[in-house]
């Protein structure tokens, strides 16, 4: 078994990759480079490549196939950065991974609390020793109605965690779960949008939910609503969100993901002009918290991401049933 790991990070992934590949007898090579059509040659002779959230489109896949790659495993839950349709047409199989939902769920609740308590403004003032109170009064989450869109593993965990605050929780999902009903009331999407003080998103991005939070959806929401997104940036129309924040309809947002983030996050771009005007505007608002896709980032999650991505390839190589294959 031979595997090439792209975008390798020695400082947090190394110890896990070295141990797991050795235990399975995998011949592994590591590169900090990103998989592109120009760097695909690095994968020559390797049956599998291991990637993160970097764009793997048809031209890249065609090059990888040319160099003998048969399997792409991404050490991420989301796989919308990979053209799965093209991969299947080229005979390349693709898998994602899973890790504990607690990592993103806990981060989501933290983001809610930061938005409710105006923490961005408090921290910015503290840096310049401005300890005044005007404009930073918060509100309590236990008095809020929280709408959770998507009740998969992460959404359900967010609901469970929120139940300890005593807030009313509404939930929406195409597939209702009995375990969720212990803490939340399922409702239709319009009612959730209309009645929630906080709305948090927890689903993968696909064609059916692209820009599900747009001007029309926001018009149904309460004035002053807070919007939280630790899922995928494509779920929100950034321009519409900006307009609704500027007019005061949206009271604030906490965003760990944004549109067009591929190629930005996890790189040192301090001297670069970024091709993402919407991100610059959102970051400028005092009532918007933006973090660089960090909700997943815990020691436990990194372990699971590495181990599960490698074990997925092992299952492929041994022709075993693989729950991670997409």
Describe the structure.
The chain is α/β, with parallel strands linked by helices and 326 residues long. The protein folds into two domains: 2-99 and 298-317, Rossmann fold, CATH 3.40.50.720; 102-290, NAD(P)-binding Rossmann-like Domain (Rossmann fold, 3-Layer(aba) Sandwich), CATH 3.40.50. The chain contains eleven helices and twelve strands. The chain has a seven-stranded parallel sheet with strand order 8-7-6-9-10-11-12, with helices on both faces. Strands 2-1-3-4-5 form a five-stranded parallel sheet, with helices on both faces. α1 (10-24) runs parallel beside α11 and α4 (102-116) packs across α6. It is globular and about 60 Å long. The mean pLDDT is 97.
**CATH homologous superfamily (4th level) name of the largest domain:** NAD(P)-binding Rossmann-like Domain
Total domains: 2
Shape: globular
Radius of gyration: 21 Å
What is the architecture of the largest domain at the second tier of CATH? 3-Layer(aba) Sandwich
Q: Do you know the CATH topology of the largest domain?
A: Rossmann fold
Number of helices: 11
The order of strands across the largest sheet is 8-7-6-9-10-11-12
Number of strands: 12
> Which structural class should the secondary elements be placed in?
alpha/beta
Low-confidence stretches: none
The CATH class assignment of the largest domain is: Alpha Beta
**Helicity, in percent?**
25-40%
